[in-house]
């Protein structure tokens, strides 16, 4: 059983490193999705981005769980990702989902770290919850349209941009976004766990979480 203890200086350094790697995965996911959907499915970028983030960032999350099996690490990473949304000009409330999802995922991971039996399912669940934090910038598209439009106008976005952004924001696309996010997270967690177990698990002993 892995003891859940206070984060140490080395742990905080590792959290910073893995947060930077996760940030890079987010950037790649957003850039690639914007390019592909811009060519093939204009207006659908926001629906696909969270799922692509989940698909690409799985190894980073699993490696963080492996290297820093202590409560607080995932919460900090979630807060850092939320702060990135906040300072990069996204809708103000985009910070909240990553912070909350990070905390819940951390609680799930703490259960996984203390489990005697294999805990791959708990890690997968935790990562899926964490990935929903990446929906922070897009959730207001469905539930806070007027405030979101006002924020876009304040940022100097054109009416054509706003119309394109909202052209496919409907009830069915909300469920599609959720389904794509879950699918991306599950696949990302699966291949991320396999990759970490293959290349980083040896010699970890009881610290595997």
Question: What's the arrangement of secondary structure elements?
Answer:
Elements: H1 9-40, H2 45-67, H3 73-87, H4 95-114, H5 120-131, H6 139-143, H7 145-154, H8 159-166, H9 171-199
Helix pairs in contact: 1-2, 1-3, 2-5, 2-9, 3-4, 4-5, 5-9
Quick gist of this model?
The chain has 209 residues and is an all-alpha fold. The chain has 9 helices and no strands.
Summary keywords:
mainly alpha; 209 residues; globular; 9 helices; disordered C terminus
Task: Give a verbal description of the structure.
The structure is a single chain. With 209 residues, the chain is mainly α. It has 9 helices and no strands. The chain has helices at 9-40, 45-67, 73-87, 95-114, 120-131, 139-143, 145-154, 159-166, 171-199. Helix 1 (9-40) packs antiparallel against helix 2, helix 2 packs across helix 5 (120-131) and helix 4 runs antiparallel to helix 5 (120-131). Keywords: Membrane, Transmembrane, Transmembrane helix. This is ABC transporter permease. It comes from Bombiscardovia apis. The chain crosses the membrane at residues 12-29, 35-64, 71-89, 95-112, 124-143, 173-192.
How many structural domains? 1
- Helicity range: over 70%
What characterizes the major β-sheet?
A: none
Structural class: mainly alpha
- Pattern of helices and strands: HHHHHHHHH
Pfam family, one: Trep_Strep
Organism: Bombiscardovia apis
Keywords: Membrane, Transmembrane, Transmembrane helix
Protein name: ABC transporter permease
